[in-house]
Specification:
65% helix, single chain, 15 helices, 2 strands, two-stranded antiparallel ribbon, mainly alpha
Amino acid sequence: MATYAGTKNNSQRDGWQPTLWQSGGASKSNGLPIDKIMLAVVLGLTLFGLVMVYSASAMLAERNFGTQFYFLLRQSGWAFVGLLAMTIAMRIDYRHYKRSTIILPVLYFTVVLLVVVLFLPKVNNTHRWIRFGALSLQPSEIAKLALVAFLALFLENRSHEVNVFKRVFLPTAIIAILVIGLIGAEPDFGTALILFIVFAGMLFHAQVPLRHLATIALPLVPALLGMLVFVPWRLQRLIDFVDPWKNQQTSSYQVVQSLIAIGSGGLNGVGFAEGKQKLFYLPSPHTDFIFAVIGEELGLIGAITLVILFGLLAWRGFKAARYAPDLFGQLVAIGLTVMIIAQAFFNISVALSLLPAKGIPLPFISAGGSSLALSLFASGVLLNISKHEGS
C-alpha cells in the first residue's frame, strides 16, 4: 500500500487548507465521480440485509409483536436514516473533518457516553445501550468513528515524529486503551478487539515502528489471558469452541444450531424464507446469527456471494486509501475499511464456529439501528475519499 510522503510539508501537516472546501471549484477532485463499485456493493448489502432481516425475524415478530413486519419496519427506518447520512457524507469533502475543533469534542462526548452507559440498567446482561423510549443507541458504534478520526488527525499532525515513542505512540495508545477499555467493561469483548485491530492497522500504515507496537503486547497479553481464563462464561466459550457438541443443549446451543442451519443449506439452500432453524431453534436469527439463516436458505452459493461482496468492499476501501491525497484521508479510509471488514469476518467466523462465540453484528445485514446507520455513514465518508484520487 502506498505511503504518503507529503506530510513532511508543514502546510500540509498542520491542517487542511480551507480553499479546498470553500473555493467552489478549485479542487481538482470536484469533477471526479464516486466509486460506483463501492456504492453498488453498499446499496446491495443494505437491500439484501433488509430482505434477510424480514426472512429471519418474521415469525419471531409475529409471536412477540403481533406483526411479522415489526423488525423489517424498524430496520427500514434506520436504513433510511443511514442512507440519508451516507448521501450527506458523500457530498462533504472529508478534509472538512480534519480539524481538532470537530474531532476532539466528538471524542470527548463519546468517552462520556461510554462512561454513562456503564451506570445504566443492563440489557441482555450488558451495559451496551442507551435507550430513549423505543429508540436505543450503542455508544460503542460512535466510538469506532471517533477513534478512527482522532487517530487519523493525530498521526498526520505528527507524521514527522513517528519514530518518537513519547510523541506519537504513547499518546495514541493511551486514548485507544481508554476507549477500548471502556467498551470492554460493558462488556463487549468483540468490539474492543475490533477497535484494537483498527488501532494497530492505522499505526502500521502511518509507519509507527513495529517495536513500539510490540511494547503494548507486554501488558496486553496477560490482561487478555486473564479476561479469558478467569471470567467463567468466557472460559466456557473457549471450551465450547474446542468441542461445541459436548454442551449442545446448554452453553454451546447457539453455535450448534448455527452449524445445523448452515449444514442444512447445502449448495443451493432450502429456499428464501423456507429455513427451519429460525423458527425458535436458532437464537438471535435476525441479529448475531443472521449468516446462519443465509447459509440455510441460500446455501453455499449465497454465503460465498456475500463473502465476495465484502471482499469487493475491502478492495475498493483499500483502493480509496491508496490514492487518497493526504495521510489523513489514507488513515480514515484504512480505519473505516478495517472496521467494517473485521466486523464481518468475526461475525461470519462465529456462525461457522471458526472463532469462539461473541455478539458482533454483520455489517449492513444484521438487524440493529445504530450499527446500520453508522456503517452507512462510514461508507459515505469512504465514498467521498474515493472522489479525491490524485487531487
